[in-house]
Amino acid sequence: HDAIDAHAHIAVYSEDADALYQRRFTLLNDFGSALESQDQLRLVYQPRIDITTGACIGAEALLRWDHPTLGAVGPSEFIPVIERSGLAHATTAWVLATAMRQQRQWRDQGLHLQMSVNVSAANLLEPDFAEALLAGLRQRGLPPDCMELEITESAIMAQPVKAHAMLEKIAATGVKLAIDDFGTGYSSLSYLQRMPADVVKIDQTFVIGLEDDTRKQALVATMITLSQDLGHRVVAEGVECEEVLIFLRLAGCDEAQGFLFARPMEADVFTDWCPVPAAAIPGRSALPHYAY
Ligand code: C2E
Ligand code: MG
Ligand code: MG
Ligand code: MG
């Protein structure tokens, strides 16, 4: 979207294009110090809900940047900028270390969730990515299958052969793999068939507004069946209302994520929101069930 917007602005208001360019330059320039700062970057966590039971079974870690002068900058703005600059390696290393530390803390509290982390296309080209991942898990005593990496369909399709080789290596470690933003990246069905992914996440553009759109309903129902027939678990992103949840449940979708349940939250808010099993904390009752 960004590229299209930028062109539209250049044609009409060139001062807007300058401002946009300046802002990107600032973001790029300042991200290195953000990585070292200890207080500019943080992760927030959004729950993943099992549609059948209503239980919270996982969390997706999402990166936030509190820039000292620009204020809050969202990842859809700064991630593409830093991805073009060679900073993806350090960023993903920071995100993985932080998410693993949080996962360790949750498990120590008796909260057992799948933790998913978004990774960049460039990470799939790092020769020692899978080894570093395993080393991080071992260091914290985490079982590989409690972590999941989300890779967008377009990131995979940018370098399909190399990406596929790395996905095979990651899959061999026991860390789970999810294809993110599924349906937006022009991957062929023959490619999906060979993908070593555990999970397919249907992009929110197909899910938002599905309640009044029979074409979206047809697409989503087909994506669910196809992905499940190929052995993947299916997560719908962008579930904002009850009608959509009901549709997904009837269509046999496995998991849902979206503002209907919760927005991404700070770790401690997430912990309160997603009660741990009763046994772990005195005074806490059973696992949550969401009425729908
Ligand atoms: P994504 O991985 O597809 O993450 C889902 C995005 O949808 C998140 O936006 C989330 O806040 C938003 N979302 C969740 N539920 C709803 C809903 O019901 N309605 C709507 N309208 N939106 C919903 P966020 O946090 O701004 O992240 C945007 C994208 O930035 C992510 O898309 C991901 O591609 C990227 N990103 C975020 N954190 C990281 C990171 O640590 N590393 C990398 N490489 N990319 C990241
Ligand atoms: Mg994601
Ligand atoms: Mg997504
Ligand atoms: Mg997305």
Automatic annotation (TrEMBL):
EAL domain boundaries: 24-278
Name the UniProt record assigns to this protein: EAL domain-containing protein
Lineage: Bacteria, Pseudomonadati, Pseudomonadota, Betaproteobacteria, Burkholderiales
Included range, full protein: 309 to 600 of 602
